[in-house]
Amino acid sequence: MQNPTSPCVPFLGRQTKTASELLHSNSLSLRSRAPPPSSINPPWPRIMLADGTGGEQPLPAHSADRKQHRRPSLSALRQKTPPPPIKLSPRTCAARGMESNNWARLGVACLLVAVVCCLSCAEAAAATRRVEVQRHLKRLNKQAVKSIKSPDGDIIDCVHISHQPAFDHPFLKNHTIQMRPSHHPEGQVLLDENKLITSKQKPPPRSQLWHNIGRCPQNTIPVRRTKKEDLLRASSMKKYGRKLQRTTPNPLSLQPDLLDESGHQHAIAYVEGDSYYGARATINVWEPRLEQGNEFSLSQVWVIGGSFGEDLNSIEAGWQVSPDLYGDNNTRLFTYWTTDSYQATGCYNLLCSGFIQVNSEIAMGATIYPVSKYEGFQYDISILVWKDPKEGHWWLQFGNDYVLGYWPSFLFSYLSECASMIEWGGEVVNLEPGGEHTSTAMGSGHFPKEGFGKSSYFRNIQVVDGSNNLRDPTGIAAFTEQANCYNVQIGHGGGKWGNYFYFGGPGRNSNCP
């Protein structure tokens, strides 16, 4: 006999009690005890008693009643005829079709709204950029006393010397312009910089292309006009006229052959370990081929102060080919400065406040001509940067005759005292187009071993010492990241060339894939 208190009574066949008797006999136990948790449903349905209580009840004892509660077999379910399809009236079909069309129209409307919003946002962004461009142009392009259209497409504005971009700097509002340095380095040797390879005929003098059309009057300076197209080539107004961060070659790195993460590569000669107050060099001028417009190639002098961290100070001058900056492949005179490793301070030429120009004949960023030809006439320019021992400003001289201007001493931290390293040489941007090394050339595009008339050179490299004297540097060393792409070869001579070196290369070649 089953235990009456059991919460689960299995069905054991025909029973002698009726359903009402079973309900009456088990009601107390069913009310007092909740069934145990189980994932298996009891084999009988739940019914409600007259008093509102419920209980689990076995199937009726009578065979007929049991048949009524028997679950259909799987085969019976499979044999059942599916219900007939629902027939919709034409009116219902039309209504549902209209509803579907309404949803489609709503989707198209939403898509159109999204497109209009995107176009509106794009137009607003374009309008904002146009306003930003105009504001930047107004800041850079000062009112001109005279304008000269150069044969290369440049416009040279002759701007009054007191209205130049330098005086936008808050610390220069009441600055008194120093028209000439108080002291010039002693011992400078004036050399005939014209070199021949195929003829004794003297090449024409180096000049700037805009000189063929006219000159600026006294008390003005020539400023290359910035055009809208120049700004639009830049990734942003903030980055226009600036180098990428950390582009100064660091030959003292623990991994000196490690390629610069920004793609910049170098082939240089350098000195360090002393206090330097300036540097000089005569630089062979070429027009190197570039593979991409957003790469560049240059030859320059670096005057460096501080570490190679975030506080690097650098003054730079030389020539460069940079379509991204100038819009063409012409060889151009340039300068650069930074006091925080190219992060937020400094710029090329006169594209920000800083460098104060006093010369009316040479334009920063203007085209230099003529340039050297392979196995042909060779042309070069002289660059001298030095610190005025009295005022502390860093002065720039182009050639033997043109003192161009100065960087005020307050701009710098480390260079407010002296430089700790001098570098001379070439630099290119290698963006590895197509996953290969760029074919952008450095210098002439030929390796140093080819020599004069074929490879590019620096000659008469000198430093300025603490007594404001030009002297030959000691301990000159060479540095390059990939000698099979761009190389440098130092020479020492006591003749007209003094200390010199050849440098450069073609970039991608069989040994530089």
Automatic annotation (TrEMBL):
* Pfam families linked: Neprosin, Neprosin_AP
Q: What InterPro entries does the record point to?
A: Glutamic_endopeptidase (IPR053168), Neprosin (IPR004314), Neprosin_propep (IPR025521)
Against Gene3D superfamilies, the record matches this protein to: Outer-capsid protein sigma 3, large lobe (3.90.1320.10)
Low complexity bias (residue ranges): 20-33
Q: Where is the signal peptide?
A: none
Region Disordered: what ranges? 1-88
Domain Neprosin PEP catalytic, first and last residues per copy: 258-513
Enumerate composition-biased segments (Pro residues): 34-45
Domain of life where this protein originates: Eukaryota
Q: What protein is this chain from?
A: Neprosin PEP catalytic domain-containing protein
Q: Which organism is it from?
A: Zingiber officinale (Ginger)
Its taxonomic placement starts with: Eukaryota, Viridiplantae, Streptophyta, Embryophyta, Tracheophyta
